């Protein structure tokens, strides 16, 4: 309810809730008072199917009692719990509060399990089957929607199981990536490169760096234009983990392969973000995840899965 900018809907809901309770009470009161005209035999005079007559007995006491209890309960409930528009309720209960309480309890219960691992270097943790089982579950719940359940990524989302890193693959770097997030920014470069032909030429030069199929005449013409790119990607296209600039001389393509994909990224640039997990996950969880991710590309040292 707090998402609404005016109090209107809150009042609206409050009014409808209270009005329907009042209407129930009124109905009860009226039916209790009203008396149908009675013939001498305590029937209303209505007859169906020749001899089926309607008796005029009062509502059973226990039934009226239950109805009154329901109304009292409803009012008591609405005082104690949130239910009337955006009113909080006297007990201060909320679903969000309940969730925080459960999370705090779970964290307290898990603390001893994690304590064992937070003291361990990542390389050693990656060899511990229990830690890696925890890491895998954390990954599936928090990371798989972007990086894939096998962590191999997809277009725009890096593969975490290879040895190719945008931001560095040492455990400390991985932990920094997960904790603080990363934003990779490749600015639109077409203006710095020159004409559309120049852009095509430099794209072919980029393809030549990894020995990918390319037009060698265009690559030759594009080589000198690559100086505009070297500040970030390096003179030989080896990349720069400080800037998150990918290695262009391997055959790993985050944003698609071939002349057209490269021309497009030179023309429009690319901003790509890994969301920070600090605050979403605990420090201990991030530590276990870092070891897990590190283990994905360092299979020799990691626990068999
Ligand atoms: C909303 C999508 C999204 C989620 C969720 C996400 N990531 Fe990422 N992640 C990305 C993107 C996009 C990048 C690439 C950032 C860039 O281009 O610089 C990235 C980059 C990374 C990198 C750096 C890779 C490299 O080559 O340096 C690591 C490590 C990583 N993510 C781990 C994780 C882990 C662990 C989780 C789960 C806690 C996670 N990510 C959750 C989108 C996501
Ligand atoms: C300011 C630094 C910067 C400059 C200058 C720059 N790039 Fe980039 N480039 C990046 C970053 C950062 C990324 C990664 C974006 C991301 O995180 O997804 C990138 C990504 C790319 C990619 C995608 C790689 C892949 O794996 O799919 C190509 C291709 C590329 N750049 C080519 C070039 C070319 C060609 C030039 C020169 C015309 C150039 N870049 C200039 C920073 C730069």
Automatic annotation (TrEMBL):
<dbReference type="GO" id="GO:0009055">
    <property type="term" value="F:electron transfer activity"/>
</dbReference>
<dbReference type="InterPro" id="IPR009056">
    <property type="entry name" value="Cyt_c-like_dom"/>
</dbReference>
<keyword id="KW-0560">Oxidoreductase</keyword>
<keyword id="KW-0479">Metal-binding</keyword>
<dbReference type="GO" id="GO:0016491">
    <property type="term" value="F:oxidoreductase activity"/>
</dbReference>
<comment type="function">
    <text>C-type cytochrome. Part of the cbb3-type cytochrome c oxidase complex.</text>
</comment>
<keyword id="KW-1133">Transmembrane helix</keyword>
<keyword id="KW-0677">Repeat</keyword>
<feature type="binding site" description="axial binding residue">
    <location>
        <position position="274"/>
    </location>
    <ligand>
        <name>heme c 1</name>
    </ligand>
</feature>
<keyword id="KW-0472">Membrane</keyword>
<dbReference type="GO" id="GO:0005506">
    <property type="term" value="F:iron ion binding"/>
</dbReference>
<feature type="binding site" description="covalent">
    <location>
        <position position="232"/>
    </location>
    <ligand>
        <name>heme c 2</name>
    </ligand>
</feature>
<dbReference type="InterPro" id="IPR038414">
    <property type="entry name" value="CcoP_N_sf"/>
</dbReference>
<comment type="pathway">
    <text>Energy metabolism; oxidative phosphorylation.</text>
</comment>
<feature type="binding site" description="axial binding residue">
    <location>
        <position position="147"/>
    </location>
    <ligand>
        <name>heme c 1</name>
    </ligand>
</feature>
<dbReference type="GO" id="GO:1902600">
    <property type="term" value="P:proton transmembrane transport"/>
</dbReference>
<dbReference type="GO" id="GO:0020037">
    <property type="term" value="F:heme binding"/>
</dbReference>
<keyword id="KW-1003">Cell membrane</keyword>
<dbReference type="InterPro" id="IPR008168">
    <property type="entry name" value="Cyt_C_IC"/>
</dbReference>
<dbReference type="GO" id="GO:0006119">
    <property type="term" value="P:oxidative phosphorylation"/>
</dbReference>
<dbReference type="InterPro" id="IPR004678">
    <property type="entry name" value="Cyt_c_oxidase_cbb3_su3"/>
</dbReference>
<keyword id="KW-0349">Heme</keyword>
<protein>
    <recommendedName>
        <fullName>Cbb3-type cytochrome c oxidase subunit</fullName>
    </recommendedName>
</protein>
<keyword id="KW-0408">Iron</keyword>
<dbReference type="InterPro" id="IPR032858">
    <property type="entry name" value="CcoP_N"/>
</dbReference>
<feature type="transmembrane region" description="Helical">
    <location>
        <begin position="12"/>
        <end position="30"/>
    </location>
</feature>
<dbReference type="GO" id="GO:0005886">
    <property type="term" value="C:plasma membrane"/>
</dbReference>
<comment type="subunit">
    <text>Component of the cbb3-type cytochrome c oxidase.</text>
</comment>
<keyword id="KW-0997">Cell inner membrane</keyword>
<comment type="similarity">
    <text>Belongs to the CcoP / FixP family.</text>
</comment>
<feature type="domain" description="Cytochrome c">
    <location>
        <begin position="130"/>
        <end position="210"/>
    </location>
</feature>
<keyword id="KW-0812">Transmembrane</keyword>
<feature type="domain" description="Cytochrome c">
    <location>
        <begin position="217"/>
        <end position="297"/>
    </location>
</feature>
<dbReference type="InterPro" id="IPR050597">
    <property type="entry name" value="Cytochrome_c_Oxidase_Subunit"/>
</dbReference>
<keyword id="KW-0406">Ion transport</keyword>
<feature type="binding site" description="axial binding residue">
    <location>
        <position position="186"/>
    </location>
    <ligand>
        <name>heme c 2</name>
    </ligand>
</feature>
<dbReference type="Pfam" id="PF13442">
    <property type="entry name" value="Cytochrome_CBB3"/>
</dbReference>
<dbReference type="Pfam" id="PF14715">
    <property type="entry name" value="FixP_N"/>
</dbReference>
<feature type="binding site" description="covalent">
    <location>
        <position position="229"/>
    </location>
    <ligand>
        <name>heme c 2</name>
    </ligand>
</feature>
<feature type="transmembrane region" description="Helical">
    <location>
        <begin position="62"/>
        <end position="81"/>
    </location>
</feature>
<dbReference type="InterPro" id="IPR036909">
    <property type="entry name" value="Cyt_c-like_dom_sf"/>
</dbReference>
<feature type="binding site" description="covalent">
    <location>
        <position position="146"/>
    </location>
    <ligand>
        <name>heme c 1</name>
    </ligand>
</feature>
């Amino acid at each position: 309810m707090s998402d609404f900018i005016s109090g209107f809907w809150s009042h609206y809901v409050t009014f409808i809730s209270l009005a329907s309770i009042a209407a129930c009470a009124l109905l009860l009161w009226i039916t209790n008072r009203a008396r149908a005209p009675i013939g001498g035999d305590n029937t209303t005079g209505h007859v169906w199917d020749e001899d089926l007559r309607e008796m005029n007995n009062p509502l059973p006491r226990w039934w009226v009692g239950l109805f009154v209890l329901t109304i009292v309960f409803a009012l008591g409930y609405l005082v104690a719990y949130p239910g009337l528009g955006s009113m909080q309720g006297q007990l201060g209960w909320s679903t969000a509060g309940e969730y925080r309480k459960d999370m705090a309890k779970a964290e307290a219960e898990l603390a001893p399990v994690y304590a064992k691992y937070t003291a361990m270097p990542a390389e050693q943790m990656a060899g511990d089957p229990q830690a890696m089982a925890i890491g895998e579950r954390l990954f599936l719940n928090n990371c798989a929607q972007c990086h894939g359940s096998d962590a191999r990524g997809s277009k725009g989302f890096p593969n975490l199981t290879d040895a190719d890193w945008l931001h560095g693959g040492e455990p400390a770097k991985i932990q920094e990536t997960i904790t603080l997030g990363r934003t990779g920014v490749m600015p639109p470069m077409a203006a710095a490169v020159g004409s559309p032909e120049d852009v095509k030429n430099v794209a072919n030069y980029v393809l030549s760096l990894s020995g990918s199929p390319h037009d060698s005449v265009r690559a030759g013409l594009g080589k000198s234009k690559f100086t505009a790119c070297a500040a970030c990607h390096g003179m030989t296209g080896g990349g720069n983990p400080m800037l998150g600039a990918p290695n262009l001389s391997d055959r790993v393509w985050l944003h698609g392969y071939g002349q057209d994909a490269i021309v497009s990224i030179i023309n429009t640039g690319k901003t790509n973000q890994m969301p920070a997990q600090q605050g979403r996950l605990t420090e201990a969880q991030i530590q276990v995840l870092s070891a897990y991710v590190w283990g994905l590309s360092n299979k020799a040292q990691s626990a068999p899965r």
